[in-house]
Amino acid sequence: MEFREWFATEQGCLDYVAKLRWPNGFVCPRCQGIKAWTMKRGLYWCHGCNYQVSVTAGTLFNDTHKPLRLWFEAMWHITNQKFGVSALGLQRVLGLGSYHTAWNWLHKLRRAMVRPGRDRLSGVVEVDEIFIGGERPGKRGRGAEGKTLVVVAAQEAQRGIGRIRMCQVVDAAGESLEPAVWEMVEPGSVVRTDGWRGYNGLAELGYDHQVVRKTPDLGANLVPLVNRVASLLKRWWLGTHQGAVGHSHLAYYLDEYTFRFNRRTSRSRGLLFYRLISQAIDLGPVLETDLKGTPETQSAVKKSQE
Ligand SMILES: [Zn+2]
Known about the structure:
Elements: H1 2-6, H2 10-21, E1 36-38, E2 43-46, E3 52-54, H3 68-80, H4 87-94, H5 99-113, E4 124-132, E5 148-157, E6 160-169, H6 174-184, E7 190-194, E8 208-213, H7 224-241, H8 250-262, H9 269-283, H10 298-305
Parallel strand pairs: 4-7, 7-8
Antiparallel strand pairs: 1-2, 2-3, 4-5, 5-6
Helix pairs in contact: 3-9, 4-5, 5-8, 5-9
Zinc ion binds near residues 33 and 49.
């Protein structure tokens, strides 16, 4: 109710985006001027250089033909669903005519959930790989058919797990694992792994590498924190997506999971919404052609319709 009152009008939503983009007032992206006439539909006309700036230009909402209010509804819905959303669910809630649009929005917003290269984990971090998809455990170093290998980093907290990060990799070779760890964990941190040789180069990258488990078996024998993340992930995966997700889009689902997991103790949905919209503004435009692959297979759509 409160949300609907705040963002009842298109202008209210535009003003909110303007406030997040320019917290200290308008700044012209061309001449850095700070004076502008405000025009209709979120347009600002710079006094200094006559440039017309749309408040949504350069954000995720760049060039949207739909009302911003609808995007706000979408983000509010997404941040209110504890176990994630499907494109079909979003389509229904927003009353969108096309499944394709709902799917596109959802994938764009998933991109905004985790900002790559930022917020690296630090302190004591456990790292291990898990396989997603398929039934039988795969073999390290060789990859397994129909499965995707994902590196999980879990930060140790006073009581259990702090934040997590996840990264899809092509295989478990050092050339794949080292950049993944680099992307997820701040150098100088303690990184705990098992004795798999793919992690041998971590000390050279500036990590305090500790081998907590000698045997490099994969699957049943994960390091403890990652093991817990893996079982929660599996439950979420089967519950929300019925395990039916195209592998080309796995990264975005993992981003969504990570976003929710890292904010699982946050009591305020409003804060979650605020994080999502802030990141959507920072992220910049996402082109439809960037969202590679086809929407979840028609059979998966059908299944959830039945
Ligand atoms: Zn200007």
